[in-house]
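Dissemination and training. As part of the outreach component of the grant, students in the summer workshop were shown how a complex can be specified as a set of sequence lines and then modelled as a single object. The example used during the hands-on session is reproduced here so that future cohorts can follow it. Participants entered these lines:
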Amino acid sequence: MIRFDHVFKRYPNGRDALNDLTLQIDSGEMVFLTGHSGAGKSSLLKLIALIERPTRGQLIVNGQNVNGVSSSRVPAFRRQIGVVFQDHKLLHDRTIFDNVALPLIIAGIGSREIGKRVRAALDQVGLLGREQGFPLELSTGEQQRVGIARAVVSKPQILIADEPTGNLDPDLSIEVMHIFRRFNEVGTTVLVASHDLHLLQHFNLRRVRLEAGRIVDSVGAELLDPARLIDSVSAS
Amino acid sequence: MSAWVIRHLQTLIGSLGRLSTHWLGTTFTMLVIGIALALPACLHLLVTNLQRASSNWDDAITLSVYLKQETSPDDARRISERVRQRRDVAQVTLITAEEGLKEFRRQSGFGAAIDALTANPLPHALVIKPAAEYLNAAHLETLAADLRQLAGVDAVQLDTAWVNRLNAILEAIQRSIVVTAGLFALGVMVIVGNTIRLDIQNRRQEIEITKLVGGSNAFVRRPFLYSGVWYGIGGGVIAWIISQLIVAALTGPVVRIAGYYDSGFRLTGLGLAPSGILLATGVVLGWLGSFIAASRHLREIEPS
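and obtained this result:
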């Protein structure tokens, strides 16, 4: 579903964000991306959403080589990926309904269908009935859930999230992660970047650790021992 | 209705709603556009009204025929009868030398000097009013040439020069309208473009988010284009109101002036077609200005 093949990313200021990165995420898999800030997690996600382009190497997303996607095709490319941001990136002057409906409006879907799908998405994140409110009337956790509803409303096959729990307290964080887990369970490929290892220990899922743009550790779900994991967290 | 049409209508109404939330700024922008459009529109009104006025003055076109000094009053009458029979002549007034002298004495105030003359220096004269359907420069020249051929005719004076001059001036003004209108059109586009540019900067975050969730440049551009269209409509309506106000303000004085010239001339405002053109010009310029600005500046905004 997502395949990095010796991918390098160097920014115009000379910083190397990704350094010969090779990674495969299968369809229907849910993977955590860990590492300190600046390790390259955000860059990796930005490449998937085509917010940035690889400097070298191949990146295949959903069967498409991103190098072959012309800038005029970028919007259509992004529509197949749901993206959740740490700072939610909601439009504060629009209702919650309008925020969640935005990807569907862009896709040119009819009003009645939009209504149905927006309510379904809000229901999945536990915010049904709040459509007519505005984002700033919600708590941070609720705003993040609106962001998730917007990311999944067009039923993308790939869902990526950059520190989605960065501003949330532990209980809310677990709740938000469970929402991602539920989408994953119905077949969506999910990639979540998070530096919060305490949170990740609640989930028996593969995690990929980045350091200076390289994968330093990739642990399959089957090899994870929760007890030992906590040790390594306290050690680091 | 298809989802696409509904979406466009929603964007159209939505952009109007957004403009109305900043109604003061919107009004000022529309006012500036309106004034810029009103200037060429008023010049156009000036020309069309002058053209109508000058065609009214065609009534005043006459040919003066001066008979030879030796012509007798009876011959003069005979010549005037012959001229009257022409189809292209509406009216012939004979002013005999005596009548002419009397009139000159009365109007000039040179009574004493004229009394000193031993003979009447004035010839008999005919004032000829051409028939309305022959009132064109070419035929008037033919008529004048025919009259010159008549026995006993000394000179024919056809005073159309001032009409030609006025027409030439009107043509020059018309040309200048085209140039002025072009410049003001450019001005309107710059005003709209600049307003849209600022609007884009203010909504930078919204544009970034829309692009992040897959909005194309065309999608992001659409509300700005509709804003431009609304600015154009508002400006066009204001320009129309300005031109009508100017006509209303000038109607009284113009009627008085026309009265002094015994003319029933009245100022007219913009007709239906020119009003439509004015509004359409506003819409097209608003759209074009916002299109150029939005295409330029939206491309620069990419999510990071």
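Residues 62-159 of chain B form a domain with the Alpha-Beta Plaits fold (CATH 3.30.70.3040). Students were then asked to discuss how this feature might be tested experimentally.
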